[in-house]
Automatic annotation (TrEMBL):
<keyword id="KW-0472">Membrane</keyword>
<dbReference type="GO" id="GO:0016020">
    <property type="term" value="C:membrane"/>
</dbReference>
<dbReference type="InterPro" id="IPR044839">
    <property type="entry name" value="NDR1-like"/>
</dbReference>
<keyword id="KW-1133">Transmembrane helix</keyword>
<keyword id="KW-0812">Transmembrane</keyword>
<feature type="transmembrane region" description="Helical">
    <location>
        <begin position="21"/>
        <end position="40"/>
    </location>
</feature>
<protein>
    <recommendedName>
        <fullName>Late embryogenesis abundant protein LEA-2 subgroup domain-containing protein</fullName>
    </recommendedName>
</protein>
């Protein structure tokens, strides 16, 4: 007498077990994909100028002899679990629409920034080649305005 090694219907296989196995596989695959994406996904750092001050344009000083420009550069790493290494950051300052004539340059040295951190780089640069008397008169007469 020959017995059939294969069950005659799906219920003999334990169909619920196969369904459970497929569901577990899909759930595990989905969660693994989500966690991998979250851990490998990075955000670009956010860079902004928080403060900008040109002492030659201060109307209360009534002098254009100080050519310093103060700036506060904020760099923010929004990544949840990854630090960022910045190479040297070059800042170039221009007067007016002519970008072929820079009035000042500044370099922020490279550094490492931890995850979910921000830092400020504050400094002064000495601007050269700006007709400060002309610019100052323009501000006093209301010809110049800041926009942002």
């Amino acid at each position: 007498m020959h017995t059939n090694r294969f069950p005659s219907n799906m219920s003999d296989y334990g169909g619920a077990g196969v369904c459970r196995c497929c569901f577990s596989f899909l759930l595990t695959s989905g969660l693994t994909t989500l966690f991998l994406w979250l851990s490998l996904h990075t955000s670009k750092p956010v860079c902004s100028i928080q403060d900008f001050y040109v002492s030659a344009l201060n109307k209360t000083l009534n002098s254009t002899s100080n050519h310093s420009i103060f700036f506060d550069l904020k760099l923010e790493n929004q990544n949840i679990d990854k630090g960022v290494y910045y190479d040297a950051i070059n800042l170039t300052f221009y007067y007016g629409p002519n970008i072929s004539l820079p009035i000042a340059n500044y370099t922020v040295s490279g550094f490492h920034q931890g995850h979910k951190k921000y830092t400020h780089r504050k400094d002064l640069v000495d601007a050269r080649g700006v007709p400060w008397d002309e610019v100052f008169r323009g501000f006093r007469m209301g010809q110049w305005r800041f926009s942002g």
